[in-house]
Design a protein that fits this description.
With about 375 residues, this protein is of the alpha/beta class. It is built from 14 helices and twelve strands. It has three domains: about 80 residues, no CATH class; about 250 residues, Aldolase class I (TIM Barrel, Alpha-Beta Barrel); about 30 residues, no CATH class. It is about 30% helix and about 15% strand. It has a nine-stranded mixed β-sheet with strand order 1-2-3-4-5-6-7-8-9. Strands 10-11-12 form a three-stranded antiparallel β-sheet, with no helix packed on it. The structure holds iron/sulfur cluster.
Length: about 375
């Protein structure tokens, strides 16, 4: 536990409900822990009601109280740049066109759907691609809305996979989560349930008690997609949470977002991927940051992403390298982005560039 919170007993610190009940939501509360910059102070005040703030004591404890450029601070504390007109004009609330006919349901690829099950998150990440939901209040999907989602899935037998998203679905009550998973499991063509959650990063205490783990295990096979962005987030608590989830036979994939000033650095990304593998979390995607209103200032160039991917190759084993991908505008889906290793081809003769920059000629033909 950080010295900032050493006055609280360890039993409270390890209690998920305590972490949620004691989220820091105001400038005054935050200032009692760390010295804020004028930009942060104004950011907290001016984003109220638009992009509000909430930070768990645990996530706050990871911040460097002296460094305004600390990567945890940049992800959790509002800054006025979020409302900067120039940046705002470059973004859209729903850049990926997720909202469709059924509220909270996105059906982009034939075999899978995404369901938004709550607008609640333990921390409101400043770069969130669903920043539009921050101002909607903290509420779980209603029975009526969930019925509509279920009806849609039942009438589309090609749907084999559902991604529960939000907000953070694992902040739902155990009872509600169990109900949602039970209903989905009754659908004969439902093969895979995936849950997008950032709780291993923001409030890993959620997985310290068996309640939620029992529910997840009961509805196996379940996959978890989580969202570590920086090596500082891989703590003993995060490791304990991951270990408890894995013990229940639930694989964990990680989706990192490439964020300017936070992880747009080859060395930081290498360290992140190494640490993820060391706690047995598989790096799945490195996403190029989407043009989301209020988060455009986190965007960097494709060249930066490709430079990072080049750096990873050869310095870390293949299973630790994520797929770098970008979501195309208008909801057209993800495409992978790769550095170019095949430089020329002439008939059967190919010229490749190796991971460390050597030019290699290679004859390849069918036998
Ligand atoms: S936990 Fe996920 S959905 Fe919630 S604010 Fe953070 S990135 Fe967005």
């Amino acid at each position: 536990m950080s010295r900032l919170f050493s006055k609280f007993p360890i039993e409270l610190w390890r209690d998920y409900n305590w972490q949620i009940q004691n989220r820091i939501k105001t400038r005054e509360e935050l200032e009692s822990y760390i010295k804020l910059t004028p930009e942060e102070k104004e950011g907290i005040e001016r984003t109220k009601g638009i992009y509000p703030m909430a930070i768990t004591p645990y996530y706050l404890s990871l911040m460097d109280p002296e460094d305004p450029k600390d990567p945890i601070r940049l992800q959790a504390i509002p800054r006025i740049v979020e409302l900067d007109e120039k940046f705002q004009s470059l973004g859209e609330p729903d850049a990926l066109k997720e909202e469709g006919e059924i509220p909270g349901l996105t059906h982009r690829y034939p075999d899978r759907v995404l369901l938004q099950t709550t607008t609640f998150c333990a921390v409101y990440c400043r770069h969130c691609m669903r920043k539009r939901i921050f101002s909607q209040g903290e509420k779980a999907v209603s029975h009526q809305q969930f019925d509509l989602m279920l009806g849609y899935i039942k009438s589309h037998p090609e749907i084999r996979e559902v991604l529960l998203s939000g907000g953070d679905p694992l902040t739902l009550s155990g009872e509600k989560l169990d109900f949602i998973l039970s209903e989905l499991r009754k659908i004969p063509h439902m093969e895979v349930i995936r849950i997008g959650t950032r709780l291993p990063v923001l409030a890993p205490q959620r997985f310290f008690k068996p309640e939620i783990l029992d529910i997840l295990e009961k509805h196996s096979p379940i996959w978890i997609s989580t969202h570590f962005n920086h090596p500082k987030e891989i703590t003993p608590e995060a490791k304990e949470a991951v270990e408890n989830i894995l013990r229940r036979g639930i694989p964990i994939l990680n989706q990192t977002v490439l964020l300017k000033g936070i992880n747009d650095d080859p060395q930081i990304m290498l360290e992140l991927m190494r640490k993820l593998i060391s706690i047995k979390v598989k790096p799945q995607y490195l996403f190029h940051c989407d043009p989301i209103k209020g988060a455009v200032h986190f965007r960097t160039t494709i060249d930066k992403g490709l430079e990072i991917m080049e750096y990873l190759r050869g310095r870390i084993s293949g299973h630790a390298i994520p797929t770098y991908a970008i979501d195309l505008p208008g909801g057209k889906g993800k495409v992978p982005l790769l550095p170019n290793y095949l430089l020329e081809r002439d008939g059967t003769k190919h010229i490749f560039r190796s991971w460390n920059g050597q030019m290699v000629s290679y004859e390849i033909c069918e036998p």
